[in-house]
Design brief:
With 697 residues, the chain is an alpha/beta fold. 58% of the residues lie in helices and 10% in strands.
Length: 697
């Protein structure tokens, strides 16, 4: 496997693996958090004490006379935001500097020493510096907002905070007064213009009345009544004239119909009645006495007199009819002239009335506008006497009893967060770039080999162990999870030969001190305790760890057997578990070339036939070449890796050495695993669940 493949892949991470990694890095993270808290505490102790005092203001706009306050929430919020910004403005700060005479205060002189802008006065520079310590904040969604100032002296903080609030109110009051005065001035100017307009309208109305001789209001009803009366009189006059003309015409013709004149009168009727009587008498006398009789002639003379009188009466009536006709015609003409004059007067009155109404309307409109504006001006004048800012002071700034800075709780929280962040960063770097083998994913992804088993430490896998010796613990606690891990490894290696069953099993590692000898001895012992015939062969020519642990005082061993100095049965030692051990005697002369001899081949063949399992404890792969010479004898080879200790590069180098000999490790087993913080994906992952299952002898 290439050496540059050092970064872990996260494709196969799960919750248990994540939890294991978190537990593994927990001490580092906890240490960083503790360090962050400690640094925050120490820094807080050395920070200068600052005090913040706050005056409270409320936005309460003044209600003007005659106005209905109707302001939406959005408009109100916008106004409050504007008020907050205005409090933090330079004019307010300059007013505070001027009012408190801060430019003469030596403690504030240091604030403007570094301010070297020639275009800014000292008061302005001090005001700018003052604004750096001012804070204005709204109280939730209410109309209240706080004006705060932070200083090293609590009294100074309260004084300046209250001064800022009062200065803002003074400026707002002055602005409102000036605004009201400006509005009042414009109202006065407009009132003067409207007053002149009213006067002009009244003058035009009076001049029109004089010019048109209109003393009273023109009434179309009176004119109409006059015209109706004249029209009625004219109709009567015209009727009389017509009758008069008829009588006059009848009189001129001297027309008589049925013995009676067309035009008659009482006198004329009497005369005609008399004539009829006389005519009847004439006819009677003539008939009786004859025309020459005096009575007849007297009657004739009376008839002639009556006829003459009738003619004179008719002539008089004709003259009277002509006079009456002439008089009636003159009256009708006079009435007709009066009607025309009345109609002309009505037309003039209508036109004058319309123009007069327009002039009167103009005058009334101008007067109404003047009166309305005058009322508004009076209201504005009244408001000017009661004018106040839209913001009012609720409470001045009290002198703070406790410092606002530094805040120990906040600093500790920040220190904890920073420590946690640093710890997580360190854990991330350690996890992402570590070169150690820690779990099944590391074995498969970094080494490319099968994961076989994990062997925990005694303390992490046995509660209250009776011994800390890893060799004795397997015997003292035969049913513990610790001992079970060796059975599990032996079983796995037993099936590692392609189903044929492994008899000769090699135990090796990349580096020394990876638990190789402990694993070989305990695995051989648990197999022997299980009733199998097992022999343990010490093949580590330099360390002879198996020999030193089990039969340290021997004088002959494996090399003497290969040199035909002693027979095999003389060097085999039986352990109390029934395990047979072939040791290496101290001071033995020989080298790894003995593992290539025919005697060693014969020895291995003999052991195959005599035992069910042959366990060979070999030297570390990278330390010497001895193990590579033994590889072809093994049915299974377990490559041990010390958990969270052995570098992945060293293990890959050992695998390359094994591959160069034409062999491949059967798998990798992790040793000295802390089962309390380790999750590997096999049965050891559930140690916490299974601890009550294992017997604690």
């Amino acid at each position: 496997m290439a050496d540059d493949v050092l970064v872990r892949s996260d494709d196969r991470q799960d919750v248990s693996s994540f939890a294991m990694r978190a537990r593994r890095h927990a001490p580092v993270v906890a240490l960083c958090v503790i360090a962050g808290l400690a640094l925050a505490f120490v820094a807080t102790m050395f920070m200068p004490r600052l005090y913040t005092a706050a005056a409270q203001l409320e936005y309460a706009p003044q209600e003007r006379t005659g106005e209905t306050p109707a302001q939406s929430d959005a408009a109100r919020d916008a106004q409050i935001d504007a008020q907050i910004e205005a409090v933090q403005s330079l004019p307010v700060a300059e007013r505070v500097v001027e009012k408190l005479r801060l430019d003469q205060n030596e403690s504030f002189a240091a604030k403007v020493e570094d301010f070297d802008d020639p275009n800014v006065t000292r008061k302005q520079a001090l005001a700018i510096a003052l604004l750096e310590d001012v804070s204005v904040s709204r109280v939730g969604t209410t109309t209240l907002f706080n004006v705060g100032y932070t200083a090293a002296n609590p009294v100074t903080a309260a004084t300046i905070a209250s001064a800022f609030a009062q200065a803002y109110l003074d400026i707002e009051l002055q602005r409102k007064i000036e605004q009201s005065r400006s509005v009042t001035g414009r109202l006065d100017q407009r009132l003067a213009e409207l007053r002149a307009k009213v006067q002009e309208a009244d003058a035009a109305l009076a001049e029109f009345r004089v010019r048109n001789n209109i003393l009273n209001e023109p009434s179309s009803t009176v004119a109409e009544q006059e015209i109706a009366t004249i029209q009625a009189e004219l109709a009567g006059a015209r009727a009389d004239a017509a009758r008069a003309r008829t009588r006059s015409a009848a009189g001129d013709l001297n027309t008589v119909v049925g013995g009676t004149s067309v035009i008659g009168s009482t006198a004329l009727a009497d005369l005609r009645n008399q004539r009829a009587e006389i005519a009847a008498r004439v006819a009677a006398d003539t008939a009786r006495y004859g025309p020459l009789h005096p009575l007849a002639q007297g009657a004739e003379e009376e008839l002639a007199a009556i006829d003459a009188q009738i003619e004179r009466e008719e002539a008089a009536l004709a003259r009277a009819a002509r006079v009456e006709s002439s008089t009636a015609g003159s009256g009708a003409d006079s009435l007709s002239s009066s009607l025309s004059a009345a109609q002309q007067r009505q037309a003039r009155n209508v036109a004058a009335g319309a123009q007069l109404a327009r002039l009167q309307q103009d005058a009334d409109t101008a007067r109404q506008a003047y009166q309305q504006l005058l009322a508004t001006g009076i209201e504005r004048s009244a408001d000017l006497t009661l004018v106040r800012p839209d913001t009012r002071l609720i409470a001045p700034a009290p002198v703070p009893a406790r410092p606002s800075s530094p805040n120990l709780a906040i600093n500790l929280f920040i220190g904890m967060i920073l420590g946690l962040a640093v710890g997580l960063a360190i854990a991330f770097v350690r996890e992402r770039w570590t070169r150690k083998i820690m779990n099944v994913d590391d074995v498969e992804l970094l080494l490319g080999l099968e994961y076989m088993n994990s062997i925990p430490t005694v303390r992490s896998s046995i509660e209250s162990p009776k011994t800390d010796d890893p060799l004795e613990a397997a015997l003292v606690h035969p049913l513990s999870a610790y001992t079970e891990s060796f059975r599990n490894l032996a079983t796995t290696l037993g099936f590692a030969a392609g189903g044929r069953g492994a008899k000769v099993i090699g135990i090796t590692s990349a580096l020394p001190k990876e638990g190789k000898t402990t694993t070989a001895i305990n695995m051989a012992r648990v197999l022997a305790l299980g009733g199998s015939r097992v022999v343990l062969l010490d093949a580590d020519l330099r360390r002879r760890s198996v020999t030193q642990e089990m039969v340290p005082g021997v004088s002959a061993g494996l090399l003497q057997v290969l040199s035909d100095e002693v027979p095999l049965q003389d060097v085999v030692h039986e352990d109390r578990t029934g395990l047979h051990v072939v040791p290496l005697a101290p001071g033995s002369v020989g080298g790894p070339q003995l593992f290539q001899s025919s005697q060693f081949d014969l020895l291995i063949d003999h052991l195959r036939q005599s035992y069910e399992y042959v366990i060979v404890d070999t030297a570390p792969i990278l330390a010497v070449t001895d193990t590579r010479l033994l590889l072809h004898h093994f049915d299974a080879l377990a490559l041990l890796v010390r958990w969270n200790q052995t570098p992945a590069r060293a293990v890959r180098a050992a695998i390359q050495q094994i591959n160069s000999a034409g062999e491949t490790p059967s798998g990798v087993a992790l040793t000295m695993v802390d089962a309390k913080v380790h999750a590997v994906g096999d049965a050891s992952d559930y140690t916490e669940y299974l601890k009550d299952y294992y017997a604690q002898a």
